[in-house]
Records
---
Amino acid sequence: MTHTLDRRAFCIAMGLIGLRAASTDARAEDGTIRLGIVAPMSGPNSRYGSFSLRGAQLAAKEINDAGGIGGRKITIISGDSQGTPVEGVSATRRLIDLDKADFIIGDVSSSVTLALQPVVEDAGVLLLNAASSNPKITYGAGAGGFKWTFRNYPTDENRALVVIQYAAEKKGFTKFAVLSVDTDYGRAAVEFTKKYLPRFKGQILTEDYYKEGEVDFRSVLAKIRDSGAQAIIMYGLADTTPIVARQMIEVGVAGKIPLIGNAEFNTESTIKAAPKALEGAIEAAAWLPAWDSPKSKAFVEKFKAEYHGEMPNNHAYVHWETVRLLAKAIEAAGSGDRAKVRDALSKIKYDSAMGEVTFDDHNQARLPMILLEIEGGKPVIKGAYSAEIDYPR
Amino acid sequence: MSSNDLSLPAPRRDLRVLFGVALAAAACIAPLFLGNYGLHALIIALIFLLPAHGLNLLVGYTGLLSLAQAAFFGIGAYTSGLMAVRFGTPFYLNFLAAGLLAGAVALPLGIPALRLRATSFVMCTLGFVIIGQAIAKNWIGLTRGDMGLSGIPKPYFALGPASFTVSGTVSFYYLVLAIAVIATVAVYLIVRSAAGRNMIAIRENETLAESVGIPTWRYKLVVFMISAAFAGLGGSIYAHYLTVVSPLTFQMYYSTTMLIIVLGGGAGTISGVVFGSLLFVGLSEALRIAPEVRMIAYGLCLLALVFWFPKGFAPLMDRFWSFLKERK
Amino acid sequence: MLTMIAEQIVNGIVSGSVYAIVAVGMTMIFGVLRAINFAHGEYYMLGTFGAWFAIEYLELPYPVAIVIGVAATAVIAVVVGQFVMQRIVGAPPETGVLATLGIALVLQNTVILVFGGGYKFFSGGYIEPVSIFGFTLAEQRVLIIIVCMLVFVGLELMVTYSRFGKAMRAVSQNIECCAVVGIDVPQVALRTFILGACLAALSGVLTAPVNVSVYGGMGEIITFKTLPVIIMGGLGNVRGTFFAAMILGIAESLVATYVGLQFRDTVGFATLMLVLMWRPHGLFSMQARF
């Protein structure tokens, strides 16, 4: 008897969930500016999603505390893409249709962003990308077709060039081993590196890609140790770097073969995990906490104060900055009308913590890449480089 | 397993037909009262319905548990996507090619796999998905690996001089709906035929089926191929809907979702699978109201399903029909 | 060149030991419950989290943390076993698949909900490198190999001589007759399940120092690596599983070195499928069951 009771209760519960889910939110009409954040909140990239959301929320809080934009406050609604295109599209659709978001900032993974582009284009909703690095996104934006997509993040093409140039010219490296993450990010970055290698007389001796969640690098590192490579090209995940660093010590590679590329080498806790392995690492990042500008330092302090002393990472910063960028665009447009904001955005001259930001005709922001080297356990900034992108005709 | 459509007495069948017609009518006018998000959820449900039908033929009617659907789904998605991007072929060609290729690949895979006993077979089918993903990731020349295929064009139809493109969610919905209905009818015809009865015989008692002269081995292989073809067709629509195909299409999660749809809806019944597809995609989306606990709730629902509704929701529906019949 | 291969084989034996401890638990659970435990990797994860929690928040030393990690998992295993696993005995295979998948989802996401989804840093353990036969290994890895040997010897003895071991063998052979002889099948099933889960947890706790990162989703990969091992070893076959695990570990190591790291995860299933084509019953005959 209880069996049947449980089943009936279950069915009723299901029905209630269905009704609740289908009901449109009355607060859609509350007059605030509704901003959706699509990021991987669960899954292997959830770290990035968590930082991204917090960065955005911090910016919204600051703006709201200062009175909002023209009196209107910002409401942030988050959507979980889990790092896969299907979920990203579902979450975005829901944000647009049910939560009535006017503006979307998303995603971190490039493959998700690419899937979002047609969706927002059809819906006429502004998509601001703050963290994907695949150039294809902006090849197809602005004059390339998708008018509602903007990107406020430098591309991997720039990044790969900057890294390899420094390694070859300043360090004299010519033999490289590749150990990057097996995703579109890792693979694309290495492809771009290969494009520029001949220019610097470099060659790749071994090429390996690790799966997200891989924990055993001993075999590969032993192979690299014996191959004669002078540096390891790593475009990878922040969370895997400490593991690789530790095993580099185990295998006897630490201190002899530096890491170059980008995988949050500059994060304090990573360096602490295996200082010997990260000494001499070279990284090209869109931002790092040590960047010396008053706005940037202020952001770091505010983030730490808001989130119990935790240091912000790259993704927290770019999302924080992008929310502020959007706010400025809305102000410049004088209204929350999507088309007007979009136009304001393409003409904007925004004063960010990294310098002045403008958008080119493919809706790509002109941003520099910061090159840093780890010396004595601390990231030392060697310079900031920009490049004008060569769009395919 | 639960009853199948063949054993219904006449009055119940009339009711069901009536209900089916009502459902179809509701489906046709759905865009009038469902926003884009709702239509999106329906489209996803219908896309998954195709591989679920295929899996139902395998699990529900022939008694073979398989986790390989995601592999054929992925093959279909890549085939369709590659053809559209490289050759610019019209949709119906991509669609058919996806199904045919998936079915064809199933042949050399099925022959050795079907010799295995139940548990090993399940693992082998899982292996297909994993190997499929590895191939998609590493054969960069063909699939562009993780960078994926993007910019798959919207489905367009070209018949001689006339051509039109399906653009916009509503039109896409009707396209998918039409395909889903045709697929469901096709499965119904298969199941109602002599072949269908043979499949049920194999499921109930394979040795006995062999002894009365049914070529069980051939049946199992052909059903495996048909099931793969259905999955490939679903993959094709998926590719054109999302416009992006990546190696993530080959993931065990899709295989298990399809399995849940079949077992949860009611293996061995067609209406069960249709209902299951709508229910589970609906459930997955509805649970977004509580994002932090979404997957936990989904897991708990799975457990509830397994223990309280071991035959899926089909018996509930049967009770509903008999309830209505008594009322008459 | 030879030392290179030897080094990779040693690496392979290390990872093989990890797989072996996890896999033997899964294969025993299959032998008794006739269910593939898709949630098995989650117990590995739970053990690791338990130990991590003990070190981070309770500030206990590593050896104590090992005990806590395994104990915490045992408690959860008791709950899961009573409410879910026991009901799987005698049910059709689909039940086991879906139920364990459901458990995996619940366990994984509850941990993520409670502790957050980011990667945590495991700071305990013996990570100082030590030199053995000219290879440098972290001390922890030597510990893993030793524990693996002890576990298998212990299991051999238990299964052959102890009452519980004999009951396990009986249940795996013929459930109906067990009732005749007076063996409490649900109890045996429950205890086997707890034993299996604890072994997975033990493996997790021992590997955490060298794998460094702890996160909610780490169990899934372990489940995927272990499935081919238990099939190749022969379902329910303890000795076979040991050898299959070692073979897989070494194969993975060699492939990672000579073919490429990106193919490492496919070695398991690729090898499995080749083996199944050639010997459908697994590499080691079903005679040596338990």
---
Amino acid sequence: MLLAKFRDEVEDILSRYPVKRSALLPLLNLAQREEGFVSEPAMRDIAKVLDLTPPQVFETVTFYTMFNLKPIGRFHLQVCKSLMCALVGSDDVVTWISKKLNITPGQTTSDKTFTLSVVECLGSCGTGPMMQVNDDYYEQLTEEKVGRVLDDLARDGTCPLKSGPYMYPLPLGKS
Amino acid sequence: MAALPTTTKDLVTVTIDGKSTSVPKGTLVIEAARQVGVMVPHFCYHPKLAPDANCRMCLVEIEKMPRLQTSCSTPVAEGMVVKSSTSTQAAEARKSVLDFILANHPLDCPVCDQGGRCDLQDFSHEYTATTSRFKELKRVFPKEYFSPLIETQMNRCVQCLRCVRYCDQVMDVKALAPVGRGTLTEIKGFGAHELDCEFCGGCIQICPVGAITSRLSMYEFRPWMLKRTDSVCGYCGDGCQITFQTKDNALIEINSTQGSGRNNGDLCARGYFGYHVSEHSDRLTLPLIRKGDEFQAVQWEEALELVGQRLLDIKAKHGADAIGGLISGRCTNEDIYVFQKFMRGVVGTNRIDSSVRYGHLNAVHAMQRVQGTHRWAVSFDDIVSADTLLLVGTNITETNPIAGLKVKEAVKRRDAKLITIEALEPAIGSISNIANLAQHHLGVKPTGYATAILGLLKAVMDQPVLDVELQSRVSGYFNDISARLQAISWEAIQAQTGLTSDMFTQVAQVFDQGKKVVILVGPGVLRASGGFGMTMNLLDLLLVTGKLTKPGCGLAPLAEENNDQGAFEMGGTGAVLPGGASLGDPEARERVSQAWGRPIPETPGSSLPQMLEDAQQGTLKAMFVVGENPLGSLPPSSGIHSAFEKLEFLVCQELFLTETAKQAHVVLPACSYAEKDGTFTNTEGHIQSVRKAIDLVGESRPDWEIFSAISVMMNDPMEYGDVKEIGKEIRDLLPGTRTLGPAPLPAQPGSSAIAHYVTTDYQRDIGVRYQLPEQVTDTAGDIILQVSQSLFHSGKFSRKAKGLLQVEATGKLYMHPEEAARRGINDGDTVKVSNGLGEVMVPVGLRERIPQGVAVFPEHFDEEIRRLLPYHVDPETQVPYCKVARVRLEKTVGA
Amino acid sequence: MAKYETILLTNMGQPGYTGSIKEYEQAGGYQALRKVLKDMQPNQVIEEVKKSGLRGRGGAGFPTGVKWGFIPKDHPGPRYLCCNADESEPGTFKDRQLMERDPHQMLEGMAITCFAIGAETAYVYIRGEFRLGAKILEQAVQEANAAGYLGQNVLGSGRTIKIFVHAGAGAYICGEETALLESLEGKRGMPRFKPPFPATHGLYQKPTVVNNVETMANIPHIINRGGEWFSKIGSPPKSCGTRVFCLSGHVKRPGNYEVPMGIPFREFIYDVGGGMRSDKPLKAFIPGGASAPFLTPDHLDVKMDFEAVAMAGSMLGSGGVTVMEEGTSMVWAALRLMEFFYHESCGKCTPCREGSSWLAQTLQRIWNKQGREGDLDLLDDLCRNIAGRTVCAFGEAEVGPIQSSLKYFRHEYEALIREAEATRPRHKEIPVLSR
């Protein structure tokens, strides 16, 4: 069972809330972190721990966009398409990625490395256009930067261009 | 019932569309409007559900509030002035809501079963313009198979979420889920899986449009083609109001009007989907007479003549008491009354018994002994308004689901405290589990109820005495009970049940503190060994805590069959006369015999077990069995097969050719409850009208008509023109007890009966009742087998309902997954179940709510496994105990 | 360019500041918490915050002290504080900076708030996408726990204050306070109807205060320097203090800027933000996040405070200022925003659920040169039937872009429709397929 493997973490999560059901989102997160998506056995497991029925877990999973019900590529490229990023060229970012990887939004590369999605505002409007890849943000994208990120990820599984703690504009004396 | 506010402080005056009224504080505007005759259109509001205010259809104008308000979520305030149908703003708002809904709603009316009784159609007719301005793409959901009985068409859904909320708040099943977000939300079960739930039909009934419909009656009708007949369900003792919907004499569907009956419009799978029994092709349509090894169909004349002749012969040769009668609690009151009058007055014997004997008699007899009533001193309304509920051996969701809904309502909506002593473990499953709602759950094995009840009594006696006055008045009774309980150690109780003294003490404290306490007891106790004694002990519990005579408190034993209570009251149990008086009571006998113009025979009545013995001995020569199937109900260990073989003459009056009927010399075709008028008395003691919905099938006849005809053949006519005549006769015989009203009038516990009990009568059997049952030592591989009721069936009767068979068609041996794992058994494996009485192979199913050390098999499919059940009979009530056995399980190779 | 004194961005403005607890303490952090626990009563704290005139920084702008005062004094409890860190309003990205760069500032604010309202448990509901932010906050909470600023017996006062970080999973609607509570309870994030309000029936139906990150970040400063000091900054009496406004779009220097309320948009966009990015002049701007109706160059002199912007027909909202240059199609802009709202509509109530889909599709049609006569009146009508009829303010929000772009840029719509009508076949022709 998935949750048996993470018993300590599950206990810790449960201890934070007086009502069990509140632990649902954190536990779903845990399941997706581990398996890459929220699987049916994981949902059943979680239902059991939280005294819920599987439909109750399922309804919550499908409400939130960050949960995947099916496995996707290793790197989920989520490009923000909201107005503020669109004003500074987010549509171009989608085009660049599509061209480079030969996929359109919603698709995954055949080697299952990249999945491309367009998403709504990610809270980075001052440094757009930008995208989120798994846990990391990549901001102020140019065609060159996009290419570099994709290459780094494919090769090393990580890229040094990911954003750190946000601050923009930077204080004087910082680049 | 909730107390009505009596002071003006609790009332609020509001004006709606110019009409003023005073309503209790907290009333919602939409409810207040309804009371003055203003119907506010709505989709998501429903009186049984907490308001959700999502459809925005019920918007009304309220003076001094800037925006339109949803009347379903706004409570009234003093002096509020509301405009609903007189408000143009509200009319515009409603029109726009309909425009929005119709934007995505498909043009399905021609193929939608809801057409003609659809809220969306009705409101559109009232509020919308005729053309839609929507020129975009409608969202479309792919059609998916949802379940064998319930169909969804999500394109029609208006997302009011009534179905989801009903399944959660009322049923506590939570099988339906709104999936997705925004306009792409649809209602599903768990992912792509089929719906797995209680199939109560509640979602179908509550859906305002045709998004959720019944597959059983799909495409068979338009509402205006249906003829409605209000009647009562023929399955269990809850006695739900149903409406038969028929078309051209065919049963199309059943529903129950919101707010109607004791069930308040709620039904269960049996009530909602089980109606096809009456139309099954196996129905007997002609009388049958045995010629050699075969049956020959004959006309009524011939069959009735034969029956009359044979009965007269046997009576002449061996005496009237050589003939016995057995009638089912499925028959109407009128049927049963005429039967026992026929047996006593025409045949001349008191040897009659009914299905009451199978367990309900324990309850009725106990209530008579202790509180002098044969009916409940409480009602379903008292269960709903109780502050403390104790459920003992009920498994209520599967046996009496609507009584179960009353418990759920009390706990979920009114914060009642729930204590359960059940052979269940709290666990979430596809049907609701009452143990999940309990604040205090004492899980026992099916053999552990007696000890658990004694443990609770012991803990209560350890608490400070509640009814000091009673204790001082009858100190003998108190001291006797106390002394005997003290002689039982907590260790012994724990050894037998696994429950500690602390657990019992906690429960005792909660029980004591309750002001309105109702104890519900069910077949787990009533049909278990020592069931009578246990029921008596529960009444003792109410007595010693001073609750028995308080308003809103009492014992509520759950009757299994729809008219078990009626069968008792109509004298279907030989030693009891119509009205509940004992056969041995000379005044009662005199009154009845005067009314009949016939003498009541002097000989005592006998129970079914007694009759079986006599048949074995050869002193019982003939039996007239009506609607019962003892060869299909009692285990072989009862000796029933050899007993019946010895009978010289067996008449079966039946709907189907059952095991017993197959042995009969004459089989008479009776009609079902859908084909006749009459009354049923539900478990509360409430009498309700049964009405004929379809024509008699074949040559079948109402039971009472057949008895009447046989009496003519026996030259002692006892004729009735119609059912109303019978009803009148019964009313005249038992004045004041036969009222047909919207709600029962619970009986009052009689002070003289109680006085007699606590001074003298209790001593008769207190010794037996207040000692621990003998422990049977477990041997290796042992498990307790319990044969009990499933939610989806009732007796063997429901196996003729094609709807119910789609949910449960065969029996499985259900056990806890860990129990199975320990024995190396997987879901679906076949196991050999055996004990000294026999062996059988059955498939296994896993259910987490079954306690470990127990395996449950549904009694509706128990032809084979019944062989393993032992049989013994209660010494006082003669109730047969044959539902629990110790067995060994062996895994077989391969599935 | 005028230089304004910062309050919230002060610490992180120091080069090399990492936001660790040590540096926060060195900068004077957690003094306010000490002061409150040692010298003040809860109702005094509430009075101080009331005096400051602080209004919610999330978008609704409700007076914070007043909101705290709604918590019933005689309720047996428990009471809860929820910090709304679900920043998902397009155009807004200030909370992210506040959380990632100076987490202890808001944690101290939360601890003081818990003391004031009598809550022992607080949850930070942070949007699921802010993984880094959540990690930084978790770390900060651990630091604060270890240092005794959180946990049981905080600073020896005998009080318990526990803060937990709870991540969302991608739903803008969970920024609405009652939807946030539903989501925190583990359910679908559907707003509840009000009344009852969270102050009496909030998390688990217990009294709850929901406050924005920036609101929380202001609290230590108000305690340290006094409510009166705060009330003199900005545009008293209705819009006190500074705000961290988020500038985005076609400007030279997008980003977060902390300025006192009441400076005109012109100054903010052209001085602070460096003006337009190219020689194209300003065509339109959004004053307060996607939910705020568009404003035009005529409104550049409007003051950046609650009242003035409301009078101009929009709202200060979340403080996300987005600038659009000449050449931007306002129909396209409205469409982008409408797609956002359609995607994020929770689906609870009929007008928003069906209306957002209807509006988005109609706009798409118009943009794709398939518009028709009557479409604009239809849009107007639909908007009027959504706003004011919904469970939550999402209804009003989603019609803002369309209504305001129709008001100021109707000609753009009309042009597209004229183009469409000109090329639309007059009769329903069945295409000739065989030739």
---
Amino acid sequence: MSDLFIAGIVVFVLASFVGLEVISKVPPTLHTPLMSGANAISGITIVGALVAAGTGSGTAATILGFLAVAAATINVVGGFLVTDRMLHMFQPKAPRRGKGG
Amino acid sequence: MARLLYLAAAVAFIIGSPRTARGGNRIAGAGMLLAIIVTLVDQDVVGWGTIVAGLVVGGVAGGLLALRVQMTAMPQLVAAFNGFGGLASVLVALAEIDRVAAAFDVETGVVAVLTLAVGAITFSGSFVAYAKLQGLMTGRPIVLAGGKTANAVMALGIAALGVWAVAAEVAPAFWIATAVALILGVFAVIPIGGADMPVVISLLNSLSGVAAALAGFIISNEALIVGGALVGAAGLILTIQMGEAMNRTLANVLFSGFGGATGPVAMSDKPVKRATPDDVAISLAYAETVVVVPGYGLAVAQAQHAVRDLATQLEERGVRVAYAIHPVAGRMPGHMNVLLAEADVPYEQLLDLEQSNPRFGLTDVVLVIGANDVVNPSARDDATSPIYGMPILEVDRARTVVVVKRSLSPGFAGIDNPLFYKDTTMMLFDDGKAAVESIIGALATV
């Protein structure tokens, strides 16, 4: 196994524990924005998608890259926007939004 | 240099993810932007057209979905986003397989198989969950004969294909394994009932993170590994908490085909006390403390704004109003809180299970709207009940309980509720929104 791969496992394990620690402190009231925010972060796959789309050659690579970038971008843009929308509603004393239908 | 900047992006995710304020979300967003820019600068990009097209299509679609979604539809939106996350990881892995012509070293090959399997199950499973939540298919469990055996065979098949793919460096074997995983995702989620969706969405959320982290191993990128691990951990915590809130183990949720009425229900023929909106308005107006218990029925009836109006009028009369929210009140963790926040209910008035239960003994009137199983005293008192041991909101300790419900039909668990037959309980049979509006009307004359 390469050193890079083992370093990756170390990073994964440590990040998992950090995640368990910080996220278990989020109050239940905010669990939906927590999940949609996490969703946006899982869109980090966009980095891999950009590499695939930008450096690949051949039709298959181009199609896969395009689809990967599109799917990951939906996740990133949609996830962050909808989380921002929800957290805005939880803000105390902020100017209230109109009561939409 | 690029790797340090990816690390900075990962740190931004860690700092941003647990914050309650919008600032935290924006820090995480800035981390994402940094990771994207670093990638574009660091790589020798030749296919700008492909990238721009993907960014525009995905950005417009994601933006429209995020800005136009109704808060009631949030669970299916998150399910869809989970699915796209899983799909993106699958596509990244397939592109890498194409690039290296399936010639991986052993560990990367194994990770590629895992990425394809987890990502594909997340993708197809999430869209089945979406279809259930959106009402495109029945929310009841669809239990197929031999379903569990079929799932086990498919899982073994993916493993076998994976071994073949890695050992013989055969690209089509990777593709076939992906196709089998897509089918497995569908079969894994269709037997799960609508009421169990909070657990399923949390689990799929976790898996979408795991898929991203695995993809990070394929392309040796720490930002993916850290971001994916964080999401995996967040989803895992929520999965466990939702399971505890329903007194169910994960295995039970996934394999029992529960979460929907499964057979004829033995309904009690004991009399209930029917109330009119005037009766309810009078008891609310003369109460000192009122606790509202919203359930999924409230969300379905879009009654959250009407409830907020009712609470405002009661507060003007000096009544103290709070909301007691069960962890599985909605169709995803924290869903009910979002719906009430949208209706401008102050954050401080939203009480969770632990905060609510000590209060009910001191509460004059509890108004239960569209909730059933989460206020069922059988879960506490009747060891023979299927929901025995599930944490409930103990509303039966309040002086008066008003239950707003369409009919006496049982809840998702298909269990009769002794709360309805208590002397201190009044039943108001109506649609949640119509009932609250008629209570508001009656209140004006009290």
